[in-house]
Amino acid sequence: MCLFSGLSRVGYQVRSAMWRACLRGGVLAAGAVLALSSVAQVSAPGVTQALKETKLSLTVAGRIDGVLVKEGQPVQKGQILLYLDRTAEELEVQRRRLLLQDVARLNELREKEKVLSEQVSSLKSLLASGGVSRKQAEDEELALGAVSSERKALESSKQREQVELNLAIEAYERRHLRAPITGIVTKLVPRAGESIGAHEPMVHVVNVSRVRFLGNVQSQLSAALKVGNKVTIKLGLDASAQSREARIVFVSPVTDPASGLVEVIAEFDNKDGSVRPGITGRMVF
Q: Which Gene3D superfamilies match (predicted)?
């Protein structure tokens, strides 16, 4: 408000000039207030997702022989969730292991090779002094060579048996479905006794200890967002909405041509499991 009390003797032009200046100052002040009021928090709508979520299947077909978990059950990484009929594969592993463990003939050849090697060394000394004939020494050397060749062939055979045992174990393991992550079983499709095909989804496991928020922001605003920036995630639309501090891990370099939006992803810890994946909200920055 502009007051000019005590200016009754001031000319009309002077008073008009002062009034115009006052008005200009008021307009500038009002503009500053409007500019400040227009500065508000910018937000990007989006939805939460579990950082680790898997849909599990087997690479082989068969009949389910056992289901060891149920929906809602916590599981550890590497834990067996279910298995197919595995009798044939188990027997094949046992057979291959027994073949590999049978080293009686190999040990016999090694002992025989050791004895013959000592005899050949002794005969060479006697041959130099004329104690034995060259024919005797050559015969012993030939016998040593034959035993050594058989021993090497048997050792190579044992190496092949080890590879075959590993293959049998791998075939046996493929009949088992293990959890690749620590989490909770959220969906269990098959039941014991049912037949399933290869690569058919059977179990869903999710880990909610860390959650990511997928938001979309206007392209002109995305330039200010950088990986590593801290943002606030507000989940829900009512007054009791949860708030979590998160950190941006991805800002898409591409703008969606249809919507003009840029995808932004932020992650935050959720060790208490209070935030359920699938909740909508907004990312405030």
A: 2.40.30.170, 2.40.50.100, Helix hairpin bin
Main-chain dihedrals φ then ψ at residue 239, nearest 5 degrees: -70, -20
Question: How many other β-carbons are positioned within 10 Å of the β-carbon of residue 42?
Answer: 14
Residue bearing the bigger pLDDT, 283 or 21: 283
Q: How far apart are CA 110 and CA 117, in angstroms?
A: 10
Q: Give the model confidence (pLDDT) of 59-74 as tens digits.
A: 999 999 999 999 999 9
Confidence of residue 241 (pLDDT cuts 50, 70, 90): confident
Alpha helices for 1-44 (secondary structure H): 12-38
8 Å CB contact between 210 and 267: yes
| Environment class of 18 (CB within 10 Å of its CB; exposed 0-12, middle 13-18, buried 19+) | middle
3-state class (DSSP) for residue 209:
strand
Residue-level pLDDT at 137: 82
Alpha-carbon distances, residue 33 vs 25, 28, 36, 210, 285 (angstroms): 12, 9, 5, 42, 22
| pLDDT at residue 31, rounded to an integer | 40
Specify burial of residue 215 (Cβ count, 10 A radius: 0-12, 13-18, 19+): buried
Q: Which two tokens stand for residue 4?
A: 């000019």
The answer to whether the predicted template modeling score (pTM) of the entire model surpasses 0.85 is no
pLDDT band at 223 (very low <50, low <70, confident <90, very high): confident
Residue 170: which H helix or E strand, with range? helix 134-173
Which whole-number Å values give the CA distances from 9 to 1, 12, 142, in the listed order?
Answer: 21, 9, 140
